[in-house]
């Protein structure tokens, strides 16, 4: 009779582990809102700055030239041209500079690396205005000339970051991958490039911001962009036009840097 109560009490302790999942569910709703607010702080700040700018414009009495320049259709056309130049040139830089960096890394020759980096240094050391004007004299004016000059100017950051990122991969990690039977190509695609991706993406982010600023000089060779507003405002001494053009260029640069940062966080491998 004394053993039966003890046997009935032991199963009563079984429901206790059901309380274990409670602490794991609590942190999830607290972290997500903070991340979302931080991520959207930059575009909200840019939107606020643009709202203040256009409120300021409404307080001014614009003449006929300023009204023609600061109308919605003109602003949208110039902004579209600027964005096309920036995005296309950055895409070409990624398609050219990353494979060039990988090839220079795989060759493992100091002379080849020095030659490739020297080519990139020439493109960035030369003043952007000089590159644009020289290409316009030798070839032609227009969109494609501005595109080539932007690619030449933004080539070096991506090339250098690709080489740096691949060189920083731990040698022991490569040897462990080879010990598992991976070929050199598999080591590159599965180990080295994923580990080097944060550095490579940082170079692409820098190239994007560079291209936004350099695209303003495309106006000198009739390639359009927001540089038209800045140059025309300087020529005609219309300071509201200059301010609007400069603020729009800065806003695009900040927003592109923010978007590139989001992509960098999403693409980055876990644990890096």
From TrEMBL:
SUPFAM superfamilies: MetI-like. It is found in: Cell membrane; Membrane. Residues 79-260 form the ABC transmembrane type-1 domain. Residues 1-31 are annotated as: Disordered. The chain crosses the membrane at residues 44-62, 82-102, 114-137, 143-159, 195-221, 241-263. It is a multi-pass membrane protein. CDD domains: TM_PBP2. PROSITE patterns: ABC_TM1. It holds the Pfam family BPD_transp_1. This is Osmoprotectant transport system permease protein. Its main location: membrane. Signal peptide: none annotated. It comes from Lentzea waywayandensis. Belongs to the binding-protein-dependent transport system permease family. One of its GO terms (biological process) is transmembrane transport. Keywords: Membrane, Transmembrane, Transmembrane helix, Transport. GO terms for cellular component: plasma membrane.
């Amino acid at each position: 009779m004394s053993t039966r109560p003890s046997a009935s009490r032991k199963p009563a302790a079984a429901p206790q582990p059901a309380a274990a999942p409670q602490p794991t569910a609590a942190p999830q709703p607290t972290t997500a809102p903070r991340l979302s607010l931080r991520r959207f702080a930059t575009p909200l700040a840019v939107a606020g700055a643009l709202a203040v700018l256009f409120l300021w414009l409404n307080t001014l009495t614009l003449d006929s030239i300023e009204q023609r320049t600061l109308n919605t259709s003109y602003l949208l056309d110039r902004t579209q041209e600027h964005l096309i130049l920036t995005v296309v040139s950055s895409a070409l830089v990624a398609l050219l500079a990353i494979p060039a960096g990988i090839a220079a890394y795989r060759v493992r020759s100091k002379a080849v690396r020095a030659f490739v980096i020297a080519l990139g240094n020439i493109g960035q050391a030369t003043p952007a205005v000089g590159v644009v004007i020289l290409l316009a004299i030798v070839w032609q004016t227009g969109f494609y000339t501005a595109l080539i000059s932007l690619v030449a100017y933004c080539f070096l950051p991506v090339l250098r970051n690709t080489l740096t990122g691949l060189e920083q991969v731990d040698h022991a990690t490569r040897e462990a991958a080879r010990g598992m039977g991976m070929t050199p190509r598999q080591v590159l695609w599965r180990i080295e490039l994923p580990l080097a991706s944060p550095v490579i993406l940082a170079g692409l982010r820098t190239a994007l911001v560079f291209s936004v600023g350099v695209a303003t000089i495309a106006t000198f060779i009739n390639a359009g962009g927001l540089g038209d507003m800045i140059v025309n405002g300087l020529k005609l001494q219309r300071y509201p036009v200059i301010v609007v053009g400069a603020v729009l260029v800065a806003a695009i640069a900040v927003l592109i840097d923010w978007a590139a940062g989001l992509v960098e966080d999403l693409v980055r491998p876990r644990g890096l």
